[in-house]
Specification:
elongated, mainly alpha, 143 residues, single chain
Length: 143
């Protein structure tokens, strides 16, 4: 970081932190809204596949939102000629990254409840804890 930021004076005007705060607030508000609820009525196999896809999409979206806060600090630090702006982006973004994207038991459970908000059965835990599928299973070749 010190090699990228010219001068490195350390004193940035307060307005340079506003985009970081705005993006962090947007991530804080938008991140927990993913994934969207599943439609009810699917058979268990299809529901599990759909839930897994939606779970993966939600984790990637949440990761991108939190990582965007951290990465925004770099160009803002170059504009402000201050490493502290990047540090502020890291301080705002890293807790969001842990809270939104780290797949803890409680985080997965929150996503499962979100998937099942419209009385759909997601079978998310079953598909997450299942053994990985063999490449031969998807090829359709049998004995």
């Amino acid at each position: 970081m010190p090699l990228i930021v010219e001068d490195g004076r350390g004193d940035a005007s307060p307005w340079i932190y506003l985009p970081l705060a705005a993006v962090a607030l947007a991530a804080l508000l938008a991140g927990p809204r993913a994934p969207r609820p599943m439609a009810p009525g699917a058979d268990p196999g299809a529901a599990a596949r759909t839930a897994l896809m939606m779970f993966r999409q939600a984790v990637l979206l949440r990761f991108a939102l939190a990582e965007g806060v951290i990465l925004l600090g770099l160009p803002l630090a170059m504009v402000a000629h201050s490493e502290l702006v990047f540090v502020a982006g890291f301080v705002l973004g890293y807790p969001l990254l842990v809270w939104l994207a780290l797949p803890t038991r409680s985080g997965i459970e929150r996503m499962r409840r979100r998937l099942e908000a419209r009385d759909a059965e997601s079978h998310l835990w079953a598909v997450l804890l299942a053994a990985p599928a063999s490449p031969l299973d998807s090829a359709g070749t049998g004995p």
